[in-house]
Design brief:
Blueprint lengths: L2 E3 L4 E7 L6 E2 L4 E6 L4 E5 L4 E6 L6 E3 L3 E6 L5 H14 L8 H9 L18 H8 L5 H4 L25 H12 L5 E9 L1 H10 L6 H15 L6 E2 L5 E2 L6 E3 L1 E3 L2 E3 L2 E2 L7 H16 L13 E5 L21 E2 L1 E5 L3 E6 L5 E14 L5 H16 L7
Parallel strand pairs: 12-16, 16-18
Antiparallel strand pairs: 1-8, 2-4, 2-7, 3-6, 4-5, 6-8, 9-20, 10-11, 10-17, 12-15, 13-14, 18-20, 19-20
């Protein structure tokens, strides 16, 4: 009997498009699922009858878990409903393990009920038992936070406070931010004179070009000259030079943060980039981005300067380019009038912004980042190339 299953780590059922008893055809949208990035329609791969809904609206399902059951004929509906009841009775934390894993647990004197399964459907594998025997992978150790405190040692809630459960997106952001702690990073700040860029922006903003797009274009042209800053690191043994320059740009949306991607930013003109960016932001805020529109970035830009922020540091984002770590992220502050000494000894007032780049020190070194920032600064100060 076919099942409908989520294909993410975890997904929340936003709404069922079809109801129990409906006849379905292959390719029809059946349910809307909220992932960590977007709301997605899930299509059915078989013809049949939606006999039973296992996961109702508002609840979540782990990867591979059935969310609904299909019957091929009317005679199978009763059996499917009974099977759905069995799924519900099992609950999301039923322990399942391979026979060898059970045998291995006895040999290592590991309580298998405390082992966290990493196999399909949460199945406990021999590797999980091995990890538990070395002090990792048990439910008890999984409760521990970075600071070393267990969940049972956390202080009670403050009286009158409200506890809010993370949304799927917030949980994904939190997981990524913790994951980034495993990467050795360093930060370099660089002042950039923006009078030329500001003048260009005044000329093109009426045509729908935003400052963020101009910054992304400038970054892409600089990355073309310094490909190592556009590279991604897989582990301590390998890293990849990316053939495309895809600029991911941080966007705050209701309930979280997402990074839509301007693909091949170095090859497109600022007018086409602006059009694409407008479409991406609209889709991001309606949670309609497709995976390749948010997970294909090779370099990230975060522009808090639009909010008047002078300077800030950004955290290197993992999870882009098929789970490689990006090489760098640029944090752009606001451009403000600043007194600048001239070559003739006189002082002038020019607009200046501070750019801070966080980089993966496994593949990018100080000289690499300094050279990239010098190139980026020259493009900003003489922005004629941005309109070519």
């Amino acid at each position: 009997m076919p099942t409908l299953s989520s294909t993410m780590t975890e997904g929340k059922i936003v709404s069922w498009i079809k109801s129990e008893g409906d006849r379905l055809s292959k390719g029809e949208s059946v349910v809307v699922v909220e992932s960590d990035k977007a709301d997605m329609d899930v299509e059915i791969f078989y013809d049949g009858i939606l006999a039973a809904i296992v996961v109702p609206e508002g609840e979540s399902a782990p990867v591979g878990a059935p969310i609904g059951l299909l019957a091929e004929t009317d005679d199978e509906i009763a059996f499917a409903k009974a099977k759905a009841h069995d799924f519900s009775a099992e609950g999301p934390r039923k322990l399942v393990s391979t026979p060898y894993a059970k045998k291995l647990a006895k040999q290592h004197r590991v309580d298998i009920s405390t082992v966290v399964g990493t196999g399909p459907y949460g199945r406990i594998t021999p590797a999980d038992v091995e990890a538990a025997s070395k002090g990792a992978g048990t439910a008890a150790s999984a409760e521990k936070s970075i600071s070393g405190f267990s969940a049972t040692s956390l202080p009670p809630p403050i009286p009158g406070s409200t506890v809010v459960t993370f949304t799927a997106m917030q949980a994904a952001v939190a997981k990524n931010m913790v994951g980034s702690l495993s990467v050795p990073t360093f930060r370099v700040g660089y002042p950039v004179i923006t009078n030329g860029l500001d003048a260009l922006y005044e000329k093109v903003k009426s045509k729908g070009v935003t400052m963020t797009v101009l910054l992304a274009k400038a970054a892409s042209l600089a990355l073309a000259q310094h490909p190592v800053v556009n590279a991604c690191c897989k582990d301590e043994k390998n890293f990849s030079y990316n053939s495309s320059i895809n600029i991911a740009i941080a966007v705050a949306i209701d309930g979280g943060l997402i990074t839509p991607v301007l693909q091949d930013a170095d090859k497109l003109d600022i007018y086409l980039l602006s059009q694409k960016w407008k479409e991406l932001v609209k889709k991001a805020r309606s949670k309609q981005l497709q995976p390749d529109e948010y997970n294909s970035g090779t370099f990230t830009l975060s522009n808090l300067g639009m909010f008047g922020v002078d300077r800030f540091d950004a955290i290197l984002p993992p999870g882009q380019v098929w789970f490689l770590f990006q090489g760098a992220i640029m944090a752009v502050g606001a451009s403000k009038p600043t007194v600048v000494p001239g070559a003739d000894g006189f002082f002038t007032i020019k607009n200046k912004m501070m750019v801070n780049v966080t980089a993966d020190h496994r593949i990018i070194y100080g000289a690499d980042l300094a050279a990239f920032l010098q190139t980026f600064s020259k493009i900003i100060e003489n922005p004629n190339r941005l309109t070519l």
